[in-house]
Write a structure and sequence with these properties.
The chain is mostly helical and about 200 residues long. Among the domains are: about 70 residues, Hypothetical protein, domain 2 (Endonuclease III, domain 1, Orthogonal Bundle), CATH 1.10.340; about 70 residues, Endonuclease Iii, domain 2 (Orthogonal Bundle). The protein has 11 helices and no strands. Helix 2 crosses helix 3, helix 3 crosses helix 11 and helix 4 packs antiparallel against helix 8. It starts with a helix and ends in a 14-residue tail after the last helix.
Length: about 200
């Protein structure tokens, strides 16, 4: 526990994210399983994402962000939200939106098809998202973060990301580890690192 107890005890407003007890267990887990993720927890503080089950939003964001920089994906998402009164659209709304409107905000033709197919499958019950969670292995931000964190020569593909997560014991805290890798990527200067080279 060591530094983790001090870190977590210093944080106020803990109801806004994962419970203190669960974060403590996750920190203890990574201290043994993946010291690099543990170090990121020390650097960036408690995991503050509100637990939720809005997996449709996560999947649509993953479609939008595929093969794009984090900044470009965020720009397109802001435009999408702007189409619907500054709120994230429901599946029914995405399915019913004219494809050209979605193309106009920067989504490619393929992403429009995938996004509307996802929305339609949810609407008609062909896709059940209950209980869905885990590693967004196709996310470019995660892949780039893993490459930098673990000192990989090449950008890992989704299969390699899943292999690394498995080898380094990310589960059952893959979502938490992903968040810390994103934080690491956002706060690391180009060409520099905040933590020791992992050499995966």
């Amino acid at each position: 526990m060591l530094q983790t107890e001090v870190l977590l005890a210093a944080e106020s407003g803990y109801t806004d994210g994962m419970s203190r007890a669960l974060q403590q267990r996750a920190a203890d887990h990574f201290a043994a399983a993946d010291p690099l993720i543990y170090e990121l927890m020390m650097l960036h503080g408690p995991y503050t994402v509100q637990p939720h089950t809005q997996y449709y939003q996560q999947l649509l964001r993953a479609i939008i962000g595929q093969q794009l920089s984090v900044k470009a994906a965020a720009t397109i998402e802001r435009r999408l939200v702007g189409l619907f009164g500054d709120r994230f659209p429901a599946p029914e709304e995405v399915a019913a939106t004219d494809a050209q409107q979605l193309r106009a905000i920067g989504m490619s033709g393929a992403k429009v098809r995938y996004g509307q197919d996802l929305a339609q499958r949810i609407c008609d019950g062909r896709l059940d998202l209950s209980g869905l969670a885990g590693l967004p292995a196709g996310d470019l931000g995660l892949r780039s973060g893993m490459q930098r964190l673990y000192g990989l020569r090449e950008l890992p593909n989704p299969s390699r990301c899943r292999e690394i997560a498995r080898q380094r014991g990310w589960h059952p805290y893959a979502s938490l580890a992903t968040w810390y890798v994103w934080k690491y990527l956002d706060n690391t200067p180009s060409g520099g690192t905040e933590v020791a080279d992992g050499g995966a």
